[in-house]
Write a structure and sequence with these properties.
Elements: E1 6-10, H1 16-25, E2 29-33, H2 37-56, H3 62-70, E3 72-75, E4 86-89, H4 95-108, E5 114-117, H5 124-128, E6 137-141, E7 151-156, H6 162-174, E8 178-183, H7 190-206, H8 212-223, H9 229-236, H10 238-252, H11 261-268
Parallel strand pairs: 1-2, 1-4, 2-3, 4-5, 5-6, 7-8
Antiparallel strand pairs: 6-7
Helix pairs in contact: 1-2, 2-3, 7-9, 7-10
This protein binds 3-hydroxybutanoyl-coenzyme A.
């Protein structure tokens, strides 16, 4: 298999922009594709803000930050991914949208390009099998914020070859991540364990065990978590969390993965957490 020299990322949202940044910081030339200029501009602006912050804090020189930025090219055109060695999908957690996207990318990508999905929970094989290269397809699951979180789950689906897994693990290591290889089983390792915990935080609130801030404060101080479960749910995005629970519930049919009624109501209200300005907390005053 050809060595990964350059990377393409589809999606420059919450996860995509972080993946683009870490890949460019690791020295890869990155092309990132978004649906329109406005969405692309928002994602790139987030990266520029993080790079400027790193310079302000003395963690990077202006020269380094400029070099990272120069390695990132934004586009709204799929054709710009034609020469990529690795294409990572980081679009909405919706299988139909992902399959439509791969249909386009598969037609223009190099025959030996490697494809990866950053799905949180959907079966990797469903995407792999839709392409002409199921052997060169794997899952690369990043954690939010991708620039900070150390872990990369490297997911082998039934068709992924040894070479594909080795290339994925090597790529993650070059990004400076701790790579953990895991099976294509809904939720992989982290979300299988984390999601029921977040949902239980919501149920505890529904049952009046504590207030939102009490539950969060208790888990931070009592279990050493950086964020309480309700803050973390807002941070992940309640819509994303809702989609993940639906996939997990569908797969395992266990109550622990079912959306609590409160989550359903919040989603119906359009409260998606931090990104929408409202979730368990009110972020409307945030920049
Ligand atoms: N991009 C780049 N750097 C960032 C960042 C971002 N978006 N957010 C925070 N940072 C950096 C800060 O610049 C800071 O760097 P410094 O120490 O060099 O100054 C460092 O991270 C710490 O940030 P802060 O001081 O602002 O705040 P905290 O100490 O509270 O840390 C946090 C923020 C890293 C987000 C921490 O609260 C945390 O680890 N929270 C838990 C996050 C988590 O569990 N993520 C996984 C979610 S599950 C998931 O993603 C799976 C998916 O499938 C759902």
């Amino acid at each position: 298999m050809a060595k990964i020299e350059n990377v393409g990322v589809v999606g420059c949202g919450l996860m995509g922009h972080g993946i683009v940044q870490v890949a460019a910081e690791a020295g890869y030339q990155v092309v990132v594709r978004e649906v329109d200029e406005a969405t692309l501009g928002k994602g790139i602006a987030k990266i520029e803000k993080q790079l400027a912050r790193a310079v302000e804090k003395g963690k990077a020189t202006q020269e380094d930050a400029d070099a990272v930025r120069a390695r990132i090219q934004g586009t709204t055109d799929y054709d710009a991914l034609a020469d990529r060695d690795l294409v990572i999908e980081a679009i909405t957690e919706d299988l139909a949208l992902k399959l439509e996207m791969w249909g386009k990318v598969d037609k223009i990508a190099k025959p030996d390009a490697l494809f990866a999905t950053n799905t949180s929970s959907l079966p990797v094989i469903a995407q792999a099998a839709s392409t002409s290269r199921p052997g060169r397809f794997l899952g690369l699951h990043f954690f939010n914020p991708a620039q900070v979180m150390k872990l990369l789950e490297v997911i082998r689906c039934v068709t992924s070859t040894e070479e594909t897994m080795s290339a994925g693990l090597e790529f993650g290591q070059r990004l400076g991540k701790l790579t953990v290889a895991t099976k294509d089983k809904a939720g992989f390792i982290v979300n299988r364990l984390l999601v029921p915990y977040l949902l239980d935080g919501m149920r505890a609130y529904e049952e009046g065990v504590g207030s939102i801030s009490e539950i969060d404060a208790a888990m931070k101080a009592g279990a050493g978590h950086p964020m309480g479960p309700l803050t973390l749910s807002d941070f992940v995005g309640l819509d994303t969390l809702g989609s993940i629970c639906d996939v997990l519930f569908d797969e395992f049919r266990e109550r622990r993965f079912a959306q609590p009624p409160l989550l359903r109501k919040m989603l119906a209200a359009g409260w998606y957490g931090r990104k929408s300005g409202m979730g368990f907390y009110d972020y409307s005053g945030d920049q």
